């Protein structure tokens, strides 16, 4: 029996109960702070982390919820800031008003800032050994900061109107998207006390997964209607995208190569991880 | 002989050599990232931290530089974001262009985000025991995040155009300014392995210091010219400020009470700390 949907349901329930109680004389900031965390999304990164823990050390699952939440709220802050007028200027996210549209730009910047910092506070409060906490904080701050996600986002914005060669586009996506996904798997590996070799394999797998998802998004943007994709499409026509650089067929071939490699990498993990990751991810590999 | 100026000089030299080497195909982000860290300021928070370490465990001074830098870059990110168009919309900071004026708003938001996260990365890399690192990260993320600085800033912005009672104004300043100053002294206490009672006293002293500096700033804004103060003054005339709430004499009395209490608290610390903190701070108590 596949227990992961139950674990993910429990995690979702956990998230709803973790809104921080901020002692203040006014609820405005507190409301803004947790709204985007509650307003769901797929919890893709926590699911990756929890899948690895469930595969390698299921008895750690309970203690993995706090780090999974830390990962999710770091991701959430990045979405709040990505949506800002100075970045994507997006009115909607997941079908709802973006945070700055509802609460104003100032509150959105500060809610993002607060969640960024709070991710690390949560990790210090987790029921884990200090050594494990430090490893998790290091992994998250490296991949989610200036050596990863923030660098990628900065380059992506800076070169928005300049055509880049494939190598540089890949560098941007590796940093902007793939490194936090790699960190999700690696944090799972840290929590499950996997050996160094497995943690390294998990990280490499996460980078490939991140790149795959980026190419897949570019393909979906070109080929699907807004209704099919569940989000606005045809947005990338003048952007740096794999489809624009490689053509649709070239991008599809690249995606196929990556998904083949990913499925092969699944098999190098333990049988349980192979099974759980296949169940979680392999439907993404058909499009 | 007073060795602290030498320590502070060494710290300044250290900061200049700590610009992170970000592997990228373009230097834009890296340039933006470290510019405000280099563009000085008084390094007030690191000086507080280093003063406590020098007083209670001088052999830890070398290892205290990384945490002192983490504290400074968290403070720096907050200045970068405070200056943004959606907040103070400031063209100048410390006599130089603000980061968003020079590099654009997008880069300034991201440089701030990156520095916020990087503060915690730096703490994980410090040459300290895991347990000490976790304590420092917890102290910084609690006081510099949604339970402290970010909450205070959010409330300050939200109530910018509403007159607040003294209790609420004090709550804002306690969070926005005082808690990070309290964290500076407490992080010093953690590094010097001070007992719980001393760490608590240091924290309380920091809160009072933070409030004192806020009232002092309000008084200077009212009484000094731009030339005397070294920064634009007469900015707070329609703002929530101690002078507007208590009148100039009332604010001066409040500042005097606080500085008296602070000097008394210095005396409860060890003689070296009393001496160093007096040398560092007592000239602020005359105005």
UniProtKB/TrEMBL annotation, chains A, B:
Name the InterPro entries on file. Isoprenoid_synthase_dom_sf, Polyprenyl_synt, Polyprenyl_synt_CS
Gene Ontology terms describing biological process: terpenoid biosynthetic process
> What are its cofactors?
Mg(2+)
Coiled coil feature spans? none
Task: Kindly list the GO molecular function terms attached to this UniProt entry.
Answer: metal ion binding; prenyltransferase activity
Swiss-Prot/TrEMBL keywords: Isoprene biosynthesis, Magnesium, Metal-binding, Transferase
Q: Which SUPFAM superfamilies match?
A: Terpenoid synthases
Record-linked CDD domains: Trans_IPPS_HT
Does Transferase count among this protein's keywords? yes
Homology family = Belongs to the FPP/GGPP synthase family.
Please give the name of this protein: Geranyl transferase
Please report the organism this UniProt entry assigns to the protein.
Helicobacter ganmani
């Amino acid at each position: 029996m596949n227990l992961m949907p139950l674990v993910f349901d429990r995690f979702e329930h956990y998230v709803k109960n973790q809104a921080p109680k901020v002692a203040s004389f006014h609820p405005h900031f507190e409301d803004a702070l947790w709204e985007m965390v509650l307003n769901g999304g797929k919890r893709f990164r926590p699911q990756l982390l929890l899948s690895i823990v469930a595969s390698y050390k299921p008895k750690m699952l309970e203690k993995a919820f706090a780090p999974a939440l830390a990962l999710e709220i770091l991701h959430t802050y990045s979405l709040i800031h990505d949506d800002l007028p100075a970045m994507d200027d997006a009115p909607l996210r997941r079908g709802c008003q973006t945070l700055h549209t509802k609460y104003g730009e100032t509150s959105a910047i500060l809610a993002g800032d607060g969640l960024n910092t709070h991710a690390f506070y949560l990790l210090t409060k987790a029921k884990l050994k200090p050594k494990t906490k430090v490893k998790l904080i290091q992994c998250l701050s490296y991949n989610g900061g200036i050596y990863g996600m923030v660098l990628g986002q900065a380059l992506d914005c800076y070169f928005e109107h300049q055509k880049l060669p494939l190598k540089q586009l890949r560098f941007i996506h590796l940093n902007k998207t793939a490194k936090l996904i790699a960190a999700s798997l690696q944090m799972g590996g840290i929590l499950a006390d996997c050996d160094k070799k497995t943690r390294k394999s998990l990280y490499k797998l996460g980078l490939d997964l991140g790149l795959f998802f980026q190419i897949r998004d570019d393909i979906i943007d070109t080929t699907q209607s807004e209704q099919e994709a569940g989000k606005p499409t045809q947005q990338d026509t003048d952007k740096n995208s794999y489809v624009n650089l490689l053509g649709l067929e070239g991008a599809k071939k690249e995606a196929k190569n990556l998904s083949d490699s990913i499925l092969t990498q699944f098999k190098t993990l333990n049988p349980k991880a192979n099974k759980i990751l296949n169940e979680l991810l392999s439907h993404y590999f058909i499009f």
